[in-house]
Amino acid sequence: MDYFVLGYYTLLIGASCLAAYYQQRPIFMLLFSITLVSFVMGIIGGKEALWTTTVVAASIGLAAGTSYGFREFLINISGRETQKMLRTAPLTASFGMFIIFTYAIMGIFAPVIAPYGEAEVIGGAFDPPDENMLLGADQLGRDMFSRIVYGARNTVGLALMATGAAFVMGAMAGMLAAVKGGWFDQLMGRTADVIMSVPSLIFALLLLSIFGTNLTVLVVIVAVIYAPRVFRLTRAVAGNVVVMDYIEAAKLRGEGTWYLIRKEILPNSTAPLIAEFGLEFCFVFLLLAGLSFLGLGIQPPTADWGSMVRENATLISFGEITPLIPAAAIALLTVAVNFVVDWMLYRSSGLKT
Amino acid sequence: MTEKKEILLKIRDLRIEGYSDEKWIEIVHGVDLTLRRGEVMGLIGESGAGKSTIGLAAMGFARDGCRISGGSVEFDGLELTTTAEEDLRALRGNRIAYVAQSAAASFNPAHKLIDQHTEAPVYYRIRKRMEAQEDAMELYERLRLPNPREIGFRYPHQVSGGQLQRAMTAMAMACRPDLIIFDEPTTALDVTTQIEVLAAIRDIVDQFNTAAIYITHDLAVVAQMADTIKVLLKGNEVEEAPTAEMLENPKEEYTKSLWAVRSFKRPQKPRPTSEEPVVSVQNVDAAYGPVKVLDDVSFDVYSGMTVAVVGESGSGKSTTARVITGLLPPTTGRVLFKGEELPPNYRSRTKDQLRQAQMIYQMADTALNPKVQIHEIIGRPAQFYGGLKGAALKSRIDELLDLIELEPAKYFHRYPPELSGGQKQRIGIARALAAEPTFIICDEVTSALDQLVAEGILKLLDRLQKELNLAYMFITHDLATVRSIADEVVVMKQGKVVEQGPKDVMFTPPHHPYTDLLLSSVPEMDPNWLTTLLEERGVDNIGEAADK
């Protein structure tokens, strides 16, 4: 029984008593169940198990604290309308925003942050981490950390472009179809059906092997594959808007299609579209990472998280976690985006109280 | 109505709060209510007066975002505000029933009427399924639904609105509750259908000696139904009195103003003899696909005059408006504008032709884009047709806001959802005026509004007509509105013009039988009106009369 274990239990029991005293039932229940579980874990796993628990709890606490701080920061710097909106944001959403913000900074300032270039060979293959290389070297002796930082720029940037392109195409087609109706609607709808009927990864592989792999082709192909989903959503949302009397009033005024789309329909369908943007971004991101993993996406020596997982995959058999780092970067961003999207969906569905 | 009857519902100092803008705001400020067995109480007031909220509180229920914050609700000796949710559930549908405004929205469209009817009595083990079905048929018969033995096996969309509302009443009766809460059960119905439902409700409440709370904003209706009337204003009680006394001798100013609301009437203008009509609809036939909806419709609208088009829903009033605006090209016939033929489709009309004829919609909520600021909504037609920009546009918008009696500085940058119903309707009017039209179609512009607000809108429209010499085509099913502002009346039924002429001629007998039916169906303030009318018509053929 050393001071750590003693402090550990004292802190937990003290905190649960405080929570109970201030009638914070959920907090008390949480703390006290952790205490009880810790008894068992301490007996079985010894001091190390308690250390792990402490580290996990501390990192969750740190994440929550960061999210809370980041939300307060956002509230302080934003305008009145946004403030009201942000106050209702759950911590998960602000955590997501914080992660996205970090990734954005990482991508934008990649050359400044990364200590070495993305294609620069500075050590031996699979060198372990040292004071020069934070995360060690990859299979060609390039700095893993620098490549992760550049990867944020390449992978996320590409995914953003592809999703943006898919949205511009899909949303425009969807709103046009909703306004025009008739044969145009049918044509667009059936085209979308055809594209959607082919599994997206297979379709992408097929098109990439036909047109070759360069960045432009990649963006266009991914955009074309994902545009139909956006089209279907936009058409459904816009379909609900075009039956409104204010659309009829605008039509009777003699307004053109472009005005209808821009001024009347778009402002009334932004919420679901933004939510959809977040979801699609995740899918596109995963598809691009998958393509890179298969060797058809972003080509070496450009750093890209998907291909980095593949290139370092052999290390997994030596018990190294290096290949998991880019994978974790992908996972973290996906989770973060989904947190934010969940919150937006919640808002746009009118469930807010 | 005798004082000896047992008290069924006793509400004391009821306070209800609603959650908005991140804080709780009190919306019902201490209302008392006492209801005895077999009594019917009418709750009356404008929207936002807290009528429905109090009605629901009588079941111990508060809507999402609302909570009962004080006072007591005692139902048959049981304090509802402190009763557990499960016990309340056992009470609802069983001993207290609720009839909602829109039966169409309250029935589950996926189940047959009778299955929904028998659900409650079977669930509460009051009756076996077969007995409950038998009972349902009997109730349908008492409510004078056609084919009482078969109608229950239809789906909600297969019966008409009035029948659905009666089936809903029957359903509320399924467990023979002690108390029924009727929340505006006839507001969404035509006058002719309204009578059937009113008569049915009154009979059945009498027969089973059920107590009822009848919520409505229509005084004439409540006069037929209630033993006592309670007037509410903004969550406060104004006054309460037995019906006859309340009608003859209201004490409070507010009540008097409610009673006097239909006093607005303007002199009728004669039709000009020399002038050409602004809009002339000539022998128009129109169809939605194979279904013919308009049959040889003709009428003229002269400048500075109001033509009211009346009829039940489905009579083709709104379709006529769609033909005039060019949304629905007619199959035969034509529409003349100042003697010139308008292209049948709005797409082929010129900007000027479109500008001349404007439209004001029934539902201001859907007629104004919720994401666009007021100045842009009003300014767009001025910008689009008149090419106004910058300062000229701004002064024009200010002028228009002045015209509709809204302060420009205050409303310039607002969004439609921040306005009240009446204000939204005013914005709709301003948008029509911004185009500087000569002819405006008003499609049921007041039917979604409270009576006081509606009167304000009618006065505004009348003033604008005088100032700007506008021609109105006024579509409505409310004959009181027609009486107050029309110069000429066109009565439509099933796509045909049944009768037309100047208002004074139309409102003095002899009428066409259908006009007569419409006119006699408008509820009057006399509490004996319904009884007398039913006697005159003969109780059994109400349904027939309406179907004729």
Automatic annotation (TrEMBL), chain A:
Could you say which protein family the record assigns here? Belongs to the binding-protein-dependent transport system permease family.
Tell me where in this chain the ABC transmembrane type-1 domain is found: 152-345
Which protein are we looking at? ABC transporter permease
Keyword vocabulary terms for this entry: Cell membrane, Membrane, Transmembrane, Transmembrane helix, Transport
Q: How does it sit in the membrane?
A: Multi-pass membrane protein
Q: Where are the transmembrane segments?
A: 6-22, 27-44, 50-70, 91-114, 156-179, 200-227, 273-298, 324-346
What InterPro entries does the database record attribute to this sequence? BP-dependent_transpt_permease, MetI-like, MetI-like_sf
- What compartments host this protein? Cell membrane
Q: PANTHER family per the record?
A: OLIGOPEPTIDE TRANSPORT SYSTEM PERMEASE PROTEIN APPC (PTHR43386), PEPTIDE ABC TRANSPORTER PERMEASE PROTEIN (PTHR43386:SF25)
Automatic annotation (TrEMBL), chain B:
What are the record keywords, sorted?
ATP-binding, Cell inner membrane, Cell membrane, Membrane, Nucleotide-binding, Translocase, Transport
Q: Membrane-spanning regions, if any?
A: none
Read off the PROSITE patterns from this record. ABC_TRANSPORTER_1 (PS00211), ABC_TRANSPORTER_2 (PS50893)
Q: Name one Pfam family in it.
A: oligo_HPY
Question: Predominant location of this chain?
Answer: membrane
What Gene Ontology molecular-function terms does this entry list?
ATP binding
Residue ranges of every copy of the ABC transporter domain listed in the record: 9-259, 279-519
Q: Does the keyword rRNA-binding apply?
A: no
Q: Which Gene3D superfamilies match?
A: P-loop containing nucleotide triphosphate hydrolases (3.40.50.300)
Compartment(s): Cell inner membrane
State the InterPro entries in the record. Answer: AAA+_ATPase, ABC_Ni/Peptide_Import, ABC_transporter-like_ATP-bd, ABC_transporter-like_CS, Oligopep_ABC_C, P-loop_NTPase
Topology term for the membrane: Peripheral membrane protein
Q: Which residues form the signal peptide?
A: none
User: What PANTHER family does the record tag this protein with?
Assistant: ATPASE AAA-TYPE CORE DOMAIN-CONTAINING PROTEIN, OLIGOPEPTIDE TRANSPORT ATP-BINDING PROTEIN APPD
Protein family membership: Belongs to the ABC transporter superfamily.
What name does the UniProt record give this protein?
Answer: ABC transporter ATP-binding protein
Q: What is the lineage of its organism?
A: Bacteria, Pseudomonadati, Pseudomonadota, Alphaproteobacteria, Rhodobacterales
